[in-house]
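Continuing the series of single-chain predictions for the mutant panel. This is the parent chain; the variants come on the following pages.
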Amino acid sequence: MTMNGRIIITLFLLSSFCFQTNAQILYGKITYERKTNLYKKFKDDNVKEWLRDEDKNKVDFLELYFNDSISVFKPQESDLKERMSWATSKNIVYQNYNTNKRLTIKSIWGEQLYVDDTVLKREWKITDSKRVICGYNCRKAIWQANDSTRIYAWYCDEIIPAVGPESFYGLPGAILGLATEDGGVIYFAKSIETSKPNMETVIPKKGKNKIYSTAELKAKLEKDFGKQPWGKSMIKENFGIW
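Parent structure:
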């Protein structure tokens, strides 16, 4: 082989390598670790009177399956017995970005309740702050949820679909980190798989279940449990910022 031939092949291989490493991701599965500080979550419920120090920080693992048009967020399945299972939410959230539809399955007191709604839109402020999460370069964005609550998100534009944990989406790439300003609830990606998932196997089916609107379910829970302090906390958990 001539010297020119070797140079051409070398340049081709290098360009191919660069193309692969810079290729943008259109689908995959993200596994998140969620840490919840229960002292902060239940700060208005005298939680320190009955919650032990060793149970203060609760860890959950959740999964996000996605492609360029839909996403499914769900708890990771496990055969292990979970301590304090009632203390954090285990929502299943299916979002279709082509139809602007969202189906949420809320697990409340052992019952699965189905809620149909539209995809939530949030006004984000993108900053210059950056960090690396799970090996991907991310940029920080801020959402002012209300007068007292600010949410930080770190998104990666190498993963094109604007997906994220729970009902979050809308940034120029996938959200790999999400946290309340006080650190009470923190999501961080722990693994990212870039193989194409079979979405049909993870999309939740409505079946014959009763379907509520968000307003209908909130009104039902307020009627049934709204007069109890624990009921107010439960309603706030299920119809708050997430």
